[in-house]
Design goal:
heterodimer; A: 372 residues; alpha+beta; Creatine Amidinohydrolase, Chain A, domain 1; Creatine Amidinohydrolase; 2 domains; five-stranded antiparallel sheet; 10 helices; 36% helix; elongated; B: 400 residues; six-stranded mixed sheet; 19 strands; 34% helix
Chain lengths: 372, 400
């Protein structure tokens, strides 16, 4: 029978010190709680709950309704986790801190009320909401002020530790190989429809032990005609990596492609370089959006940058996307940058990479030998 | 009601009939408008379908619906350019909103006022919200009270239309077919993720919209005490897969689910690695099948959840299902939705559940004999006018 240790051995690439990763993340979350005066956190978002607990939950596609998946009490530093069994829960979380899955709000309320420091918390940070959650919290902590717990976790999660960057790099390795498999499937059958390319991608990443795609679609809708934008993302041990590469549907070398395709590729490569150059500590959304202006490229309707970590993270940067005007890139952040060019005749090209911002600029985590 | 296996669902009719159910339920509950964020709720109200993505992406770029019972069409707010719209008119489809942040919540409130009209209804039903919406939205909607939309949604969704049942059947057919190919590859030395790789490829080849749950291939101990710790003393299940190869003779509890046009399948079987079942394991399977047969025999309109539980428990020393789950659950746009039978909502809830034609139930009894192990499998059925019909069409190899 599997134990927690078996799960650990399965999933930790050698460069990552899992114990240190957990310690560092929880310390950052507790610091953010302190700065914001939060006595407790009630977390339901997958990425937030994983960040503070590192408990491995069964993956489901898409978002789940909000519920109390993980609870942190600042005074004790204790982490409580919704889990009927200890499998997949780090040994640092004692069995008495587990509470079971339940459909019955009375049972949940009674169990949560036993968590030391929750019922008498003055301020509780919560990262989602529903009318049912409102009733639950009113019973468990009737006197608490409810505050934005998601903002606290955003703050904690935005700058990555070295172990987190290694985890994203490990995810990127699998995502790249998945994209290469989709590309091979397209080369083998240029008339292939999207599900065939998805099948090639998911089978490749699953064979490497990663069965959790970041999204279903593997062809980016904005690139049509002679070029195909392959878009592959995975979550490995919770960490995401995603990339887009544009390839010729009919195969062949660059000189066999129509002039428009060559032009779109060249302009996209220049834009990609400009975006990477703009992605430096101290810059903000304006500089990233400005890279399009500078390259003479119209901004697409979709976002051109987003945070990457335990899944997609804030910010979301785009022509129509909300981003805190005071948001600035800091050393240690990891962002996905999306260069996209659409020519007047409809020919398009997309390239997306995950970039780790260091003191000297951005390092691409998603490039490698399989790149087109 | 007999089932035609080749029948195609009419997606436009499905969208119309769901909306009519929802509008009627809204009037009954006196909730004139709904603001919806949950994926299944938005799909139910609008008929829109969009590619699935992980929770982080989905929260960052949500799809929302605003449904006013007096307007024949709901409004959809979506960031997806590749969304399928069923029969939504273009003037009811709007760019995405960003209710994670205060500015996005303000945009949302403004759009609600513009679309519903100057005088907002007294009550707007809300299924879920971001924390920014909870903190800011009530102050932006004047005298309007936000009420819980779940009772309205649950009452509408618990009975499926004919096309919804066809969608669930199609999802289940794809899932069942793929698992035949997967079971053929089960042998000692194979690793769980190799089965996942084959499964995920096959369901896409067979036409699935996407995968729903990380496939579960859980080796089960013969004795309860040999499994991981559980807070309720129950058998630990379901667990994410490990990388350890399967060993000869191991018992595996399998659980997979996919989607087709938004609707889910649910597959559960007990497999044995590279070996025939022992006489004791066969006896356990026979006991499991007897539990299932008793439950299926009493499913008909008018039967209650309590009737199903009594049938399941007859002759069993303890309730034959996992205490932290249930004897059965509904399935539709969500993988576990109402009706629940045998959950910890309690006996009163089970007694109040009265089956109606069009309800879908996934039955998942578990029988256990310490020292031998357990048998678990899932059977989806739909309640008909006078009984029920199977949705699952999958053999019980290597047991039968």
């Amino acid at each position: 029978m599997r134990t927690t240790d078996d799960h650990e051995a399965d999933r930790t690439p050698p460069a990552i010190d899992r114990e240190r990763l957990r310690r560092d993340r929880l310390a950052r979350a507790l610091d953010a709680m302190g700065r914001r005066g939060l006595d407790a956190l009630v977390l339901g978002r997958e990425g937030n709950a994983r960040y503070v607990s590192d408990a491995q939950r069964l993956w489901l596609a898409g978002p789940r309704p909000f519920g109390p998946v993980c609870i942190v009490v600042r005074a004790t530093g204790a982490v409580h986790v919704l889990s009927t069994s200890s499998a997949g829960v780090p040994a640092t979380i004692p069995h008495e801190n587990l509470y079971p899955l339940s459909w019955n709000p009375e049972i949940v309320a009674a169990r949560l009320a036993r968590i030391g420091g929750l019922s008498d918390a003055r301020t509780i940070g919560v990262d989602g909401w529903s009318p049912a959650a409102a009733r639950l919290l009113a019973r468990v902590a009737p006197h608490a002020r409810i505050a934005d717990g998601d903002a606290a976790l955003r703050e904690a999660r935005s700058v990555k530790t070295a172990d987190e960057v290694a985890a994203i790099r490990a995810a990127a390795d699998v995502a790249r190989r998945g994209l290469a498999a989709a590309r091979r499937a397209l080369a083998a059958r240029p008339a292939a429809i999207e599900p065939e390319l998805r099948a090639a991608f998911v089978a490749e990443v699953a064979a490497r032990g990663v069965t959790t795609p970041a999204f279903d679609a593997v062809v980016h809708h904005a690139v049509r005609g002679p070029l195909v934008a392959l878009r592959c993302g995975v979550l490995r041990d919770g960490y995401e990596a995603t990339l887009i590469r544009t390839v010729a549907r009919a195969g062949g070398g660059a000189d066999e492609q129509p002039a428009a395709a060559r032009e779109a590729r060249a302009r996209c490569a220049a834009l990609h370089a400009a975006l990477l150059a703009a992605c430096r500590a101290g810059a903000g959304a304006r500089e990233l959006l400005g890279a399009f202006d500078g390259a003479g490229v119209v901004l697409p309707a979709f976002p051109i940058a987003h945070g990457v970590g335990l899944g997609a993270e804030p910010p979301l940067v785009g022509a129509h996307h909300t981003c805190d005007p005071d948001w600035r890139i800091a050393s240690g952040m990891v962002l996905a940058l999306h260069a996209h060019v659409a020519l007047a005749d409809g020919t398009g090209c997309s390239v997306q990479d995950v970039v780790h911002v260091g003191p000297g600029g951005g390092e691409i985590l998603t490039s490698g030998p399989e790149d087109p | 009601m007999t089932h035609d296996a080749a029948a195609e669902p009419d997606l436009a009719r499905m969208a119309r009939e769901r909306r009519a159910r929802l509008a009627a339920t809204m009037r009954r509950h006196d909730v004139p408008a709904l603001l919806l964020l949950g994926r299944a709720a938005v799909q139910y109200a609008t008929g829109a379908l969009w590619p699935s993505s992980d929770a982080g992406h989905a929260h960052q770029q949500p799809t929302l619906a605003l449904f006013v019972a007096d307007d024949p069409h709901p409004h959809l707010f979506t960031p997806h350019a590749d969304v399928l719209l069923a029969d939504l008119p273009r003037d009811h489809v709007h760019p995405g909103l960003h209710p994670e942040f205060l500015t996005g919540v303000r945009d949302l409130a403004r759009r609600v006022r513009e679309l519903v009209g100057a005088s907002l209804p007294e009550r707007i039903g809300l299924d879920e919200a971001t924390i920014a919406m909870h903190l800011e939205l009530p102050g932006l909607l004047g005298a309007t009270t936000l009420v819980d939309a779940q009772p309205v949604l649950a009452a509408a969704r618990i009975v499926k239309t004919r096309d919804e049942v066809l969608c669930i059947r199609r999802a289940q057919q794809i899932n069942d077919r793929a698992m035949l190919d997967v079971q053929a590859e089960l042998r000692p030395g194979v690793r769980p993720h190799e089965l996942s790789a084959l499964f995920l490829r096959r369901v896409l080849e067979l036409g699935a919209s996407g995968n729903l749950v990380d496939p579960i291939w859980q080796p089960m101990p013969a004795r309860r005490a040999d499994g991981p710790f559980t807070v309720n003393g129950e058998i630990a299940f379901p667990l994410p897969s490990s990388a350890r190869p399967f060993a000869a003779g191991e018992t595996i509890w399998v659980d997979t689910g996919i989607t087709w046009n938004g609707y889910v399948s649910d597959f559960g079987r007990t497999w044995i690695v590279g070996d025939d079942p022992s006489p004791a394991q066969r006896a356990l399977f026979d006991r499991w099948r007897a539990v299932l047969a008793r439950v299926v025999a009493c499913i008909r309109p008018g039967a209650t959840g309590a009737d199903l539980i009594a049938a399941a428990c007859a002759g069993e020393a303890r309730p034959p299902w996992l205490a932290h789950l249930y004897l059965g659950h509904g399935a539709g746009l969500d993988s576990a939705e109402l009706p629940f039978v045998g959950s910890d909502l309690g006996a009163g809830f089970d007694t109040s559940l009265v089956l109606e034609p069009g309800m879908v139930l996934v039955l998942e009894p578990v029988v256990w004999e310490d020292g031998v192990g357990g048998h678990r499998a899932e059977e989806a059925v739909v309640v008909t006018g006078d009984g029920c019909e199977p949705i699952t069409t999958h053999p019980y190899a290597p047991f039968a």
